[in-house]
Amino acid sequence: MPRQAVSFITLLAAAPLALASPLAAQVVTLDEIVLSANRTPAELARTGLSVSVVTAEDLEKAGDLQLSDYLARLPGVGVVQSGPAGTSANLRIRGAEPRYVAVYVDGIRVDDPTGIASEFDFGAMSTADIGRVEVLRGSQSALWGSSAVGGVINITSRKALKDGLSQEAAIEGGSYGTVAGRYGLGYKTDRVETHFTLSHRRTKGFSAYDTLPPNPALEPDGMEATRLSFGARYALTDAVALGVSAFAQTTEHDYDGWGADAANIQKRKEWGARVFGEWSVGNSTHVLDVTRYRISRDQFAAGVPDGSFTGVRTGLSYQGTTEFSNTFTLVYGADSMKETAFNASLPTGGSTRISGVYVQGLFRPIDTLDISASLRRDDNSRFGGHSSGRLALAWQAAPGLTLRGAASTGFRAPSLYEQFGDPTWGIAANPGVGPEKSRSFEIGADYAMAGGASFGLTLFHIDVDNAITYCGARASACVTPLPGGFTNLYENAPGRSKRRGLELSGALPLGERADLGLAYTYTDARNPAGARLARVPRHALSLSLDGKLSERLTGQLSLRHSAGRTDVADFTVVNAGFSYALGADTALSLRVENLFDKAYQTVPGYGTSGRAVYVGLKTSF
User: Fold this and answer.
1) Do residues 182 and 129 lie in contact, with contact meaning Cβ atoms separated by under 8 Å?
2) In the structure, what pLDDT confidence band is assigned to residue 21 with cuts at 50, 70 and 90?
3) Local confidence band at 24 (pLDDT 50, 70, 90 cut-offs)
């Protein structure tokens, strides 16, 4: 579609755009309860950590169809995508590459075991059935284990929020032949909670490969995805409950290789399930769960099979929490996870197992001071043991003012691909490849004013040692001897890469009818040789202006600016949206992405959306 052409289908929207500022979610709310920081419910302001909380309401008000589009607005978070919806979308936290981010959906680890670096691809993850997201920044392996070097993302599906039977439906359509819909059903009583969501999205897309200026003659790359999620919890007694959560998604999308338009297709199927039991005895609570995740990817080039990959992850975990007093709580647990991958080079599968135990003390020596200390020990079936730790504190220095700091270590176990190689492509196995290790430090302050304004500032630093790199032909020379007949392998490289910077967030009411939100991140990310890392902007800025234009009409204007990357030019993108309430539970929406039709790229050689218009409707009953 030419960038100057604006077409839309007057179908109805998945989410109205009326608006409390989406960036306001980045500023600490003093009574906000989070789970990710300490693996037990805690007031965010008392954790000493940097956590962004995104709710279903935030996502609906922003109107983004794709989760990564919203997450890119958060402080410390960067997203790059190789084309339209469905194509590879990678997320970084504080300049740490996607392989350093652990991602969970409803307690199920969803990083792809078949990938080269076993990272999660956000390209087909929509906002349709998401109820809450917590983004925890900094190294968190002391509680979350391997890969939590840059941070952790915890995604929770929608749940029934009111008693009795509830339903909701939404549909949206617009530019690039996009149609998206969602239906949700929930039921809640004193003992039973259950929910079900079915969503579907289809788009003709635009060309993944593109030039600057864009070439409208290139073949568009479309996608189609269907997702089903389900969850239930039943309280047998006041002290015992059983539950299950599950999801399944099928995705088919076109994609292009580097430097050329191509007729490539990937078909992906994935599902995950978690079965859990909860019980409490005295001053202790306990959770035991079993999880399973499976993904298969089949790739085709011009209709010819070009690779088939299957990955399976099975997990077992236990966690206990004992509140000894109002000033001391102990969190403790153990977990074990087995990963297996199958492909042409591993027809019988290659697998690893990692098991860990952890303990965390939560101290409150005085009412205004909270301290947490965590320690974890992991054992990997390939490289042996590794220890991680974290120390964090939060001080309520004055009414509305919180001073905080944290120091932690993290690690990332090598992926199955990095360990077993791929003889089809001349990549040798390397049984000696070991874990990547990190150190993370941060200090910050959050201030909430009486008039509703709030601000947050964080200084951060992450070091990574023993980074796993690709070496051999068309790469740096290998230190590890290459076996005969092989040209490449993955090995640990000497030296230390560094990522440091600051995060600034703010929310400012402009009278009674408007709000201004801000998120800014400065990042200086460098490899061991001192060169800046690609795909990490030095400056990232998000602004939003939300206003109530009448009793029924609200609007939003948002801006995202990226500057100082080494591989693409600076860019600024502006989006706009409106929502009109047709009734108490029904709203009509209009949104415009890339309002000024800016031509830009987030990955060199890959396109982005031109001006696009979407119309939609949402209702609940």
Assistant:
1) yes
2) very low
3) very low
Average pLDDT, rounded, for the chain: 94
C-alpha–C-alpha distance, residues 617 and 16, integer Å: 7
Residues 422, 343: Cα–Cα separation, whole Å? 9
Which pLDDT value is given to residue 585?
A: 94
| Short-list 55, 50, 84, CA closest to 69 | 84
**16 prior amide bond cis, ω within 30:** no
Q: How many CB atoms lie within 10 A of CB 312?
A: 18
Parallel/antiparallel/unpaired status of strands 151-157 and 101-105: parallel
Distances (CA, A) of 56 to 75, 160, 419: 19, 12, 39
Instruction: Measure the CA–CA gap between 563 and 573, rounded to whole angstroms.
Output: 12
pLDDT of residue 246: 98
Token code pair at residue 554: 């609200």
Measured CA to CA in angstroms, residue 483 lies from 224, 382, 476, 577 at distances of 43, 19, 17, 58
Residue carrying the six token digits 């039991």 = 277
In whole angstroms, give the CA distance from residue 60 to residue 495: 44
CB atoms within 10 A of CB 566: 13
% of the chain at pLDDT higher than 90? 90
The pLDDT tens digits of the residues spanning 189-238 come to 999 999 999 999 999 999 999 999 999 899 999 999 999 999 999 999 99
Query: Using an 8 Å Cβ cutoff, are 66 and 85 in contact?
Result: yes
- Res 403: pLDDT: 99
Hey, where are the domains in the chain? 22-476+486-620
- Measure the CA–CA gap between 28 and 445, rounded to whole angstroms: 10
Buried b (16+ CB within 10 A) or exposed e, 397-413: eeeeebbbbbbbbbbbb
With 0-12 / 13-18 / 19 or more C-beta atoms within 10 angstroms meaning exposed / middle / buried, residue 121 is buried
Residue 418: strand, helix, or coil: helix
154 by Cβ neighbours in 10 Å (0-12 / 13-18 / 19+) ranks as buried
d(CA 370, CA 46): 6
DSSP 289: E
pLDDT at 16: 32
Give the integer Cα–Cα distance in Å for 316 and 226. 28
Q: Confidence band (pLDDT; 50, 70, 90) for 346?
A: confident
Hey, what amino acid is at 327? T
With a CB cutoff of 8 Å and minimum separation 6, the contacts of 320 are 284, 285, 286, 287, 331, 332, 333
pLDDT of amino acid 23: 53
Helices marked H in 66-128: 67-71
Task: List Cβ neighbours of 455 (8 Å cut-off, separation of 6 or more).
Answer: 27, 446, 447, 504, 505, 506, 507
Helix count (H) and strand count (E) of the chain? 4, 33
Q: Is the dihedral of CA 26, 507, 67, 75 positive or negative?
A: negative
pLDDT in tens, 350-385: 999 999 999 999 999 999 999 999 999 999 999 999
Residue 402 Ramachandran class (φ > 0 left, ψ -120 to 50 alpha, else beta): beta
Give the model's confidence band at 254: pLDDT under 50 very low, under 70 low, under 90 confident, else very high.
very high
Residues 517/24, Cβ–Cβ less than 8 Å:
yes
Give the pLDDT confidence score for residue 121 in this predicted structure: 97
Q: What is the CATH number of domain 22-476+486-620?
A: 2.40.170.20
